[in-house]
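Please decode residue identities from the backbone states below.
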């Protein structure tokens, strides 16, 4: 009788071990598929695409919310590109900003 009990317990233990082995193999295969280079590349490109789309949407909303600032920025950029006095003034401004930045420690006590 004890031998039959031991054989039954062994049979149940083997069944549980087979089930655990099968679960482990399934989890391992799904993890391996999840971390394949193609899948990671696809996930990264999807995430970047979503972030770019979100940034575009936010930019357009901001531009629509502030039309005067937008038109001023566009006109200023066009002036810098096409109007020589604006380029010269911007160059002087950048030089002054550079000098201020280089000498910023001189003003501190």
């Amino acid at each position: 009788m004890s031998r039959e009990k031991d054989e039954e317990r062994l049979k149940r233990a083997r069944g549980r071990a087979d089930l655990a082995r099968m679960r482990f193999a399934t989890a391992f295969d799904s993890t391996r598929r999840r971390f394949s280079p193609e899948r990671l590349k696809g996930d990264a490109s999807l995430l970047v695409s979503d972030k770019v789309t979100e940034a575009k949407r936010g930019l357009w909303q901001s531009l629509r919310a502030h039309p005067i600032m937008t038109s001023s920025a566009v006109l200023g950029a066009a002036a810098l590109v096409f109007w020589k006095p604006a380029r010269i003034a911007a160059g002087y401004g950048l030089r002054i900003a550079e000098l201020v930045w280089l000498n910023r420690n001189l003003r501190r006590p």
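Observation: The chain is about 90% helix and 0% strand.
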